[in-house]
Amino acid sequence: MKRSEGTRAAPPTADRRSLRRACAAAAAVVGAALLFAAGCGPSSSDLFPPAPALALLSEPAGVQRGNVRVEYTLSEPNERRVSVAAAFSLDGGATFRPATEEAFPGAGGTFRLAANRTGIPHLFVWDSVADVGLVGAVNAILRLTPEGGASATTRSFQLDNAFPAGRRLFVALRLAGLVAAIDAESLQVVDYVKVGAGPRGLAAYQNGGIDYLAVAGAESDNLTIIDLSNHQVAQTLAVGDNPVAVAFVPGTSGGDYLYTVNETAKTVTPVRVGLANVLTPQTALAVGNGPVAAAPFTAGGVNFLAVANAKADTLSIINADTRAVAQTVTVGDEPVDVMFLPGLRGGDVLFVPTRSDNHVTLLNAASAYAAVTDTPLGVGTGPVAVATTTGFAGNPATETALFVLHAGEQQVRVYRYSAGTPASGEEYPQTTRIAAPGAPERLAVRADGAGAKTLYYSESFDDRVFAIRVSSSPPVTLGSIKFPFRAGPAGMVVR
After folding, report:
1. Over the chain, what is the mean pLDDT?
2. Share of the chain above pLDDT 90, in %
3. Cα–Cα distance between 253 and 256 in angstroms, integer?
4. When comparing pLDDT for 258 and 43, which is higher?
5. What CA–CA distances, in Å, run from 484 to 104, 276, 477?
6. Which phi and psi (to 5°) does residue 130 adopt?
7. Who's near 94: CB < 8 A, 6+ residues apart?
């Protein structure tokens, strides 16, 4: 069919690149001015590329905390990559400010995203804590705008980042280099904080009326301090080789101190916590081989720190007032945790799980660390962590329940301890045992304002944290949170 004068037939899409190469070669011979007549000029789609389109798949609903998720599709007729600008408004859409994307492994980003004709799904996660802070209830709107396209705006939703005391569960994510802040009731991640490589141990403390979280970075050989009023890293300082745990010892004769437990270096590094949270590392103290855990305690009016040395089968007892090793105590085979509980059976007791011989050793801190009668306590296979609470499974508040996490048999056993009872302790009925599948790591306990008690355990094989209501009879699993990337959850702190 004859073409009308002044029009050009658009070449088939598959032949367009060949035509452009031919046109480029012809330009060198006949001149660019004559190419339009030969059909070599830019097409209308080249001069005016079609606009990309963004459609929302999901919008925030109900009360949102911390990380706010928006799912959407991105389409573009020529399948070009498209960047997206995210913004938020707190005044009903009158004004917008750039929205910070939460950074975590696998996050979609906003730059040069894949698009096609039918639409490719994407996820934007807004880090509202970074942009708004830990504020009370406000109304918010999110807007996503593809480059060169029309915006898509969410409906208004309520954002409440104000957390009551004890509502946040912080988890060290060893494989991701992050600390996750979790709403301890809803089991939703509200924020991720980037820290040093291989975070394992956590310790919360207060200085100048501000809450802080100390994070031991095992692979980065440093201590990261997070300001819990805004979830921002306040400072980072170098400590010993392979710090796997950290403990806070307040009110010593020299002030408040953090202690990092440096496994490879076989040392503990005291860090003085001064006014305005000024941190000053001190000379490291040599302890036993393979230190992996520490717990502060007080005996006879003196502040101490007990350090579990897994490869030496000992506890190093550090006088925290003089910052010197005061005593070394032999325990069972491979101590991997230590916990202090005062006023138990008329004594102040250190609990030490020893993984390789399947025991928990009880030591009386007020009697030169003598073993409490009838100990060590024979427990299940591979005990790796301990925790306590009262009011377990509806029992009297005068009873102390000892939780022992067993990696070998993948469950938590619970033992009854009370002042004045026989020293050996007895296990609660087997029906109260708590399943802990996978690779369980650490324990944490939370008590809410209504008296309910919740036990949390981290599990590193499937990247989960589980929550069990242990004040119920029998205990009830409330749920779990699974991280959407290789996380390696380890140490935990409720704050």
Report:
1. 88
2. 72
3. 8
4. 258
5. 9, 37, 21
6. -65, -35
7. none
Quote the CA–CA distance of 101 and 217 in Å, as a whole number. Answer: 24
* Whether 350 contacts 362, CB under 8 Å: yes
The rounded distance, in Å, linking the Cα atoms of 378 and 188 is 37
Q: 449 — phi, psi (to 5°)?
A: -65, -20
Burial class from Cβ neighbours inside 10 Å (0-12, 13-18, 19+) for residue 321 reads middle
Instruction: Report the candidate in 138, 72, 130 with the shortest Cα–Cα distance to residue 99.
Output: 130
Q: How confident is the model at residue 429 (pLDDT cuts 50, 70, 90)?
A: confident
Question: What band does 4 get if pLDDT is binned at 50, 70 and 90?
Answer: very low
Phi/psi region, residue 273 (left: phi>0; alpha: psi -120 to 50; beta: rest), is beta
> Using CA atoms, how far apart are residues 495 and 489, in angstroms rounded to an integer?
17
Which fold would CATH assign to domain 53-159? Immunoglobulin-like (2.60.40)
Q: How far apart are CA 211 and CA 224, in angstroms?
A: 14
The CA radius of gyration of the chain, in Å to the nearest whole number, is 30
Q: Which residue has the tokens 């904080």?
A: 193
Contact between 465 and 485 (Cβ < 8 Å): no
From CA 258, how far away is CA 320, in angstroms rounded? Answer: 10
